[in-house]
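REQUEST FORM: STRUCTURE PREDICTION
Request ID: SP-0412
Submitted by: Lab K.M.
Chain count: 1
Length (residues): 181
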Amino acid sequence: MAKTNTLPAKSEAETEIPRTAEELRSLLDRAKLGDRSTLPQVRALLSDPERSRWYVENLGSPPNWLKNHMAERVAPKDLMVRESFHRKLDEVREELAGPDPTPMERLLAERAAWCWAEVNIRQISYEQAENLTLRQAEFQQKRIDAAHRRFLSAIKTLATVRKLALPALRINVAQNQVNLG
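STATUS: Completed
RESULT:
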């Protein structure tokens, strides 16, 4: 058996993570280009309790990717509209989630907020379109209808989850009793 002169791989805790903005920028640029040699540092950075949350939430979150994509589509250059869109979507999501939501309610509220935005964006797009052929108008209406069905399905599911989470309450007026079941 041939002996190899390789050192054991460092654990994430032993791997040096960038400390300066310049080192971090260099690491992220190389990682973005697919440089596999950055993986130990990337993994160590994502394991750092002080810094990982921001990266996971902003770079690893499909809902954030979608929010950014939709905002870019709605207003490719207008930063005020894009930021306002982000805030409104967050506001709708928080309103739908309600106070002290369960993890499932948070996910469903987020989905319902996306569907709410999508149906409104599709409706605006249709209203602003000019000189559509009958076939194009029908296609746009089908897209609006599909988005609306997804929105209704999302809010119905959210309502169902909330209803199932509540304990059943029975009031027996004759015996002056309230029973949770």
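NOTES: The first strand starts at residue 169 and ends at 172.
Reviewed by: T.R.
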